Amino acid sequence: MNEYYKIDPLLEKCRNSFLPFLWGEGSISGQEEFFTSYHEEYFKAARDFGIYKGIIVPLGPYNNVKAGVSISFGKETTLNNTKFFALSWHLTHLGNFIYYLQDKHDKKEPLQQEELVEIYSFL
Length: 123
Description:
Elements: H1 2-7, H2 9-14, E1 21-24, H3 37-48, E2 53-59, E3 67-73, H4 81-106, H5 113-122
Antiparallel strand pairs: 1-2, 2-3
């Protein structure tokens, strides 16, 4: 699993935080903290696909983050505080939902009808 943290600078940052954060061009935090040679290649590849910025929410307990839920945007998208907090809240809810489903799966517990309805309505 450590190989992914060496490749993806966003997951690397998630390992040391439990708070959602903005990344990329025009964001509040910017990309400055990510710049090393392999990080630069990563962000250049993202830009080649039209990905310039985004929001990522670390998933997992503090100091044991295993993943992140993220959403990315093109160059023209403006991310202000209102959009950031609204999208972060939704991504956090989605992340909690994923953890809940993973826990049910790990315990080999079937989903109840009410849970299935909630999943479908969420999607």
